[in-house]
Specification:
108 residues, alpha+beta, 3-stranded antiparallel sheet, two-stranded antiparallel sheet, 46% helix
Amino acid sequence: MTVEVKYVVIREGEEKMSFTSKKDADAYDKMLDMADVLGDWLGNAPVELNDAAREGMALWLAEQKDTLSTILKSGKLASSATEAQVETESTDGDAVDITSATKRVKAA
């Protein structure tokens, strides 16, 4: 018999993703926190966004935080940053940055 440890990120009673390492689970949870803050901030934007578009944009911006930070600091898009970005589809269809979560397991 094998024992497998899984770290599960749960938001508002809903299981979002499972990981095999605490570090990856914490990073994903932090990204979701950032997406929540960005979603609230985008709600104040001068452009009308419906709730789904605002949530999707906030999640995408949080996933792309390194690229966004580079753009904000330098005013330029680094070509190597876009090529190095690795994405996959999560179980709910949202794109997830797995560069820091290489040992992600599919959510149950």
